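To whoever is on call:

I kicked off a structure prediction for a single chain this morning and the downstream step that reads the tokens threw a length-mismatch warning. I double-checked the sequence; it's 283 residues and nothing unusual in it as far as I can see. Pasting both halves so you can look.
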Amino acid sequence: MELAAIVAGVLLVVGGLVVLAGSGLHAWVARHQGLVVKAARVAGDLLRRLAGPHRRRHKERSLGPGGNALALMLVPGLAAVALPAVALGGLVDNVTGGDGVAGVDQPVARFVAGHRTSGLTFVMRAVSVAGGPFGMAGGALAAGLLLGIVWRSWAPAAVLCTTAAGAIGLTIVFKAALAQPRPPWAQAVGAADGYGFPSGHAAAAAAVCGAAAWLCSVRMRSWRARTGIWAAAAMLAVLVGVSRVYLGVHWATDVLGGWICGLLWLAVVVSAWAAFAQFPHPR
């Protein structure tokens, strides 16, 4: 089977899973609307209590379109951060020990090296350049400014730039701490330097695409549009990560670690911003 068909199949599967998850979530929320509203109120009450009595005197903000979903992010926020953190810890243990999931690195690298084509290599190089940390940082700034014009607020630019900078910084720290080598250069058809784990490209793509999808979906009324945005973001992040394995500059676990790092930082940013947005601020 051609490698291009495999890549296309992976992207379609990822997009399909996101669509199915979005449809299932929408159906569940529709059947449990009362529970959703009640949970949102409980989350808001809890945050006001934690904020202190001087802020509890403020009137409760009304929830606009997508507000219930935003408030409910506060309840599982800790879990959203803890789950990727635990997954990353397990992956680091496998990578440094050379066992577990790390066992797929060599077979995947050999398979990819034996099935490259000139056309797909050209595409993957372009994806890798556009989806790199610098490309994603520039894209985050551009998307933030564009959304800021629509929102008439500086918030989207702040969220996206914070997301990009944090994801890149997190991977730099992990690379320096773990010092994991990249695949042998003889197998590579792309250029890269430094250590391999985790992939900065994969982390930046997962975090920035996720943040952009979240910001877009917050103000969308149609659940189909929200699901479509998330599916497109997931497919783009996966494609960037796959391009790094294809070019031979990262092991599969490097990319997996990058995705997890990106999702971890995205969870931190979204949870923090959702909590921050619930409170009125003095002018």
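Update from on-call: the warning came from a stale cache, not from the record. Cleared it. Sanity check on the structure: The first helix runs from residue 3 to 31.
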